[in-house]
Amino acid sequence: MAVMAEQGAGEGGSPVWDGGGRRHRWGGAPPWWNRPDGDPSRPRWPWRSTLAFTVVVLVGSNAAADMQEGERALLDPFARALLLLGTLMLLWRWRRPVVVVFGTAATAMVYLGAGYPYGPVFLTVAVGCFSAVVTGHRKAAWTAMGVVWAGHVLVAHWLYTWLPPGGDDAASWGQEGVVVAWGVAILALSELARVRREQWARERAERAQAARRRADEERLRIARELHDVLAHSISVINVQAGVGLALLDSDPEQARTALTTIKAASKEALGEVRQVLDTLRSPGEAPRDPAPGLDRLPELVAQAADAGLTVDIEGEPPPLPPGTDLAAFRIVQEALTNVVRHSGARHARVRLDHGGGELRLRIDDDGPATGADAGGGGNGLVGMRERAAALGGTIEAGPRADGGFGVLAVLPVRAPRESEADR
Fold first, then answer.
1. What is the value of pTM for the model shown?
2. Each residue of 9-35: pLDDT tens digit?
3. Helix (H/G/I), strand (E/B), else coil: 367
């Protein structure tokens, strides 16, 4: 009861909400005694609760002495010093739990051995036992409670004739049953709190791991987006810049066309990068611009044409969930970018087939490769595989038997109702 009152007093800080919007049980935030020893929100010195325990023990002992007058010894300065010593030791219950649990047990035994009244003196033992168990010192707590019970049996049934008060009779063995039940109840509550503490520690570790995993996934997603946007646009800009430089003197009009293409490609790249950055700045808001999808394939074809690559599209894109649509668009974009950067081909084909719950994207070029890293030697293929794997799909990429390079992406397509539910 007193321990719960201490928690309610707020000695550990304000309530904390978990990632799912749920408050932790037992008072919002995990109880201060449930926090790891290194937790900065854990109380350094439990002054307020110790003061409360001191008042309860001293006042309660005075009331117990009045009710047991004539049966037990009167409270004297030595008795009050023992009571005060037992409660003051509770200041160290989180720093030195083993010392405190044995210290409070010894103080209680001296108090009872001196013939003083039964009462709240056992509260200090209960709190010391609780602190020892929840901090992992179970054997010490159980041993201390065993010492208290053995000491009570010794004092109440064998040594009572030599101990104050004079003329005292042996206690009934039924009273020992009460002492045993009290000890078992304290230990049971302490073990329950220990289990809850370990459970909360596991939950916190799992939440931290999940948060790190989500952060890593988001970081990879943003890296893929930026790579796909910049690699494609910069490839177009690079090709057109070369064309412009080559024709600047001999064909100024064609050079002007190349510069216009550079301007359009850079503007589109800036717009898509800005969209990614806006998502980072306002993660809780929906993007203001729709994510690109296969409906923008004609734009890719036009940009590829500006870079000197003719692209034929075979098949019509089916209705797709936003995530699948974006992944498919980026895969085609990256594949065409690799053709521009790493192949001498002037012609490429994009084939779309869908059926059986799958979308198959085939991007082929006629080659030849212009270097050892045909098909892309950087992060392009890795990013495509990551996008496909995130949706449960696959990517196959490699040289074709008849020359050139091919990329085959197989992406699962869910029913529109399921996709709508996912959104």
1. 0.48
2. 444 333 333 444 444 443 444 554 455
3. coil
